[in-house]
Every structure is written in C-alpha cells, then in structure tokens.
Inverse folding.
C-alpha cells in the first residue's frame, strides 16, 4: 500500500515536469527562441516545483478543513441536546361552552334562518334601491330595509315606559328614525325569545309558590345582554336595555329573575367578545369545567339590534367614502336587522325544549393595526390565526366545518381576506357554496349582522349535524371568530400550532 502511494506520487511529479518541459520546449522551438540558462532554470525547474507546491498546499488545506468539520460534528454529537420548549399552557376555561337553547332573527330577507341561509347560499338574497335614502346626487342607494316593522307601536311603548320611569326622561329630544327602528327590532326579538322562556317547567311552580318559598323552586336568573348601536349615548343604551328587560317580564318571566347586564357605551368591544364574556362568567373559574355541564343553573338572553337606515348615517358614510352609491362602487350598503340567542347550561336547554344541544364555544378576538379600507396588500394571516385559535378552543378540525358564516359583503378587501383565510385554515371547505356573506344580502347593521351570522351558524349546525364557523371581518380593524357545533358531533382536535396557541392571547 505504501509502495503504491509513492509510485503514484512519483508518476504525478514526473508528469508535471514532463508536461511543463514539453510545453515550453515546443514554445521555444516554434518561436525560434534560444533559451539561456536562466530560462532553463526558471521554466523547466522552478515553475514545475511551484506548481507542485501549490497542489500540495491546496491538498493540505482541504484536509485541515475536513478535519475541523469532523471535530465539530463529534463535539456536537457529544453535547446533550437542549430540551424542547414546553408548549404554552392552554387554559382549561378556553374549552368552556354554553348551549344555544333557542335563536331568532329579523332581516330584510325574512325572519326564518333556514330560508335566509338557503337564499344566501344560492346568492338569491339581493338588496333593492331604497327610495327613502339617497346620496348627495339625489340617486337612491341600495339598502336592506325590513318592511313589516311596527315603528310607531315601539315608539309609543318606549315613550310610555320612559314617562313611567321619569317624566323628565320622556321629554327628551325626538329620536332619529334609525334609533326608533332599532328599538322596534330589539323589542320584536326580545318578545319572541321571552315566549321561548315560558316553556321552562319551573316557571309555573315559581309563580304559584308563596313569596317566601320561591327561591326553593330553582328557577334560574336570566341575564339579559342588549347589544345596541355604539353610536348611541351611554344613557340611551342603558335606558333601552332596561326597557327590554321589562318587555321580557311582560312576556311572563318574573322581573326579579331578570338581570340586565350593563354594556359600557364608550368601550370598544366586539359583539363576539360580549358573548365570550357570558361564557367566561357562567361558572366559577376554580371549577375548571371544560364541558357545558355546570354545577349551577345558567340562563342568558343576548339581543343585538341596529338600523343604519338614517339620513345622518348615510351622509356620514358618504363623507367617509364608505357608502356604496352612484359616485363610489367600493363601499357598503346600509341595512338593519336584529338577532338573539338564549344561552344556557345543558339542563336548562333541555328544560326549554331544545332537541339538539348545539354548543357555542369561546371567541377568538383581535384587532388589526392596518385598516382593511386602506390601500395596499390585503393579508389574511391575522384572521387565520384567530380562526385556528377558535378551532383549537372548540377541539374541531378544519375538515369538520360544514358552514362558514361571515358578516361581510362583496367589498374586494373583505372578500380577499376571507379567501386567503379559507385557503390557509379551511382548505377543504367550498367557499362558493359553504360560505355565506350576510352583509352582502342584508346590508351593514353592526352588531346585529354579527349576531345574525351566529344565528345562521346555529341553524346550519342544527340541521347538518356539523360544526359551523362564524367569522367577523366587516369592521375595518376588528376581527373575531367563534365555533358552533352539536354536542354529540364527532370532532377531531386540531393540532395546536404556535400561531393558534397564541391566538387566544389576543382575546381581550
């Protein structure tokens, strides 16, 4: 082996000298040049030796680099691997739920959730030109108006209630048209849900029992959450909420068993976050119950109503270049609507006659820094993180979602954001037939549109026996997502990702 190595090296040296000599001798012969002694020494001796030294140096450098790399690999193999960072703790209360015992809605396309859902899926729900609302050029605009609405009756009832509370309050300035229509819509939903509460088996026993024995009956307290327009003053919102509480009592539920939950007027809170707070406060945090089963009865009525059919609102939107009109084809259309949910623990839901226990899971809510109305690229990563967080809270795989209900319309920014989120987080859903945009068919109505989308999700989940996802991206900055699913539906827990784990942290 050693002799063979020396022979190879000797042959290589001889080859270098031979090639060099042949090359220069041929050059000198061709150029008729007679080399002197310095040429012979330089080109026939020194140059081959320098070439051999260069080859030897390159070889040594390669060997040293290879040895250093091998040494580093050996050292790395002997060093113990660092421990993988622990997965952030996912709080047990993020798995809490409430059962949707009943739901109701009012929309420009009708009052039946199943019919409205079918119209939206077929894209048959369309807005009409409203002759009562015009832009600055005098042209009528597209709007979602509810025809059969007893505004005068609601106004009379509300003013009579105000006068009974305080004569000074009844002398307040005349309410705007949109304000009165909102009150009428909220009253309709409250009365309908109040009728559903009458099915509770303990109600008759409670009303017939002596006053000192009523607490032993076990009739639950109803928590009334009224989500009214944020542009209203705080006093107006509080008065309207108290009025709705009295309407609930007029339907037959004891007034002392109704608690009106205050909603701070100046608090910029998404409607889904209010619902999330209902779930979060429905039980003791120390109980750590991940299911809908509660140790104590819980019953809540959430009502949202809003009407944007007002000249002042239309003028404001047009000034802000947010109105879809003759001079702008990228805005939104005013609408109106109302929706409500009865949320309860499983026992109360069954007592109220719920055939299928449909669960409402915790909300993932966040705020984007860049407005969706600002020019530039539309990104869907933020909304995707919220959706992944909502799916993780619900323990539902993306493939299990049967319907995607949104509160947005056909504006390019909202549509592109939904499409990017769908491709990223819900790759198996058909955005053409399994995604409905409530704002496109009913107009923009704030919290009422968000709540109506949840009612559609509840209706679809109950009918299909599958989970439904409700996403809110109509607002320029606010984003939210909630999952609705039947309690007994098979669901695969989605694999937690760092983004999904961090999403609930963005929830206020």
């Amino acid at each position: 082996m050693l002799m063979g190595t020396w022979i190879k090296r000797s042959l290589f040296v001889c080859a270098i000298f031979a090639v060099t000599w042949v090359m220069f001798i041929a050059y000198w012969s061709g150029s008729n040049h007679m080399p002197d002694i310095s040429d012979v020494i330089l080109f026939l001796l020194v140059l081959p030796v320098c070439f051999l030294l260069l080859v030897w140096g390159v070889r040594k450098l390669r060997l040293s680099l290879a040895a250093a790399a091998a040494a580093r690999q050996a050292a790395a193999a002997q060093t113990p691997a660092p421990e993988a960072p622990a997965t952030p703790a996912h709080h047990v209360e993020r798995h809490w739920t409430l059962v949707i015992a009943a739901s109701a809605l009012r929309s420009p396309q009708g009052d039946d959730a199943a019919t409205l859902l079918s119209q939206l899926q077929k894209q048959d729900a369309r807005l009409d030109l409203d002759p009562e609302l015009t832009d600055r050029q005098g042209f009528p605009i597209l709007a979602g108006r509810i025809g059969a609405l007893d505004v005068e009756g609601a106004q009379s009832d509300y003013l009579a209630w105000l006068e009974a509370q305080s004569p000074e309050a009844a002398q307040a300035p005349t309410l705007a048209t949109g304000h009165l229509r909102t009150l009428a819509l909220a009253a309709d939903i409250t009365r309908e849900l109040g009728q559903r509460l009458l099915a509770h088996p303990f109600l008759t026993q409670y009303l017939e029992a002596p006053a000192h024995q009523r607490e032993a009956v076990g009739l639950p307290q109803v928590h009334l959450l009224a989500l009214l327009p944020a542009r209203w003053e705080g006093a107006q919102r509080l008065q309207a909420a108290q009025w709705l509480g009295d309407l609930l009592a007029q339907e037959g539920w004891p007034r002392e068993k109704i608690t009106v939950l205050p909603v701070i007027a100046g608090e910029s809170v998404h409607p889904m976050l209010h619902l999330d707070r209902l779930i979060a406060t429905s039980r003791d945090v120390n109980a750590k119950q991940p299911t809908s089963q509660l140790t104590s009865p819980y019953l809540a009525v959430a009502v949202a109503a809003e009407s944007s059919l007002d000249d002042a609102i239309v003028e404001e939107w047009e000034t802000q270049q947010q109105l879809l009109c003759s001079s702008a084809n990228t805005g939104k259309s005013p609408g109106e609507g109302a929706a409500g949910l009865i949320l309860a623990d499983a026992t109360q839901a069954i007592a109220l006659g719920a055939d299928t226990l449909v669960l409402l899971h915790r909300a993932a809510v966040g705020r984007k820094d860049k407005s969706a109305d600002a020019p530039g690229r539309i990104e869907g990563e933020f909304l995707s993180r919220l959706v992944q967080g909502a799916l993780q809270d619900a323990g539902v795989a993306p493939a299990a979602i049967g319907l995607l209900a949104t509160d947005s319309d056909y504006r390019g920014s909202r549509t592109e954001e939904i499409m990017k989120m769908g491709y990223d987080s819900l790759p198996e859903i058909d955005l053409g037939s399994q995604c409905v945009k409530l704002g496109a068919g009913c107009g923009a109505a704030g919290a009422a549109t968000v709540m109506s989308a949840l009612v559609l999700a509840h209706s679809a989940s109950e009918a299909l026996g599958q989970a439904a996802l409700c996403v809110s991206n109509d607002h320029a900055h606010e984003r939210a997502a909630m999952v609705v699913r039947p309690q007994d539906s098979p669901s695969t827990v989605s694999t937690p990702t760092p983004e999904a784990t961090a999403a609930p942290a963005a929830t206020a």
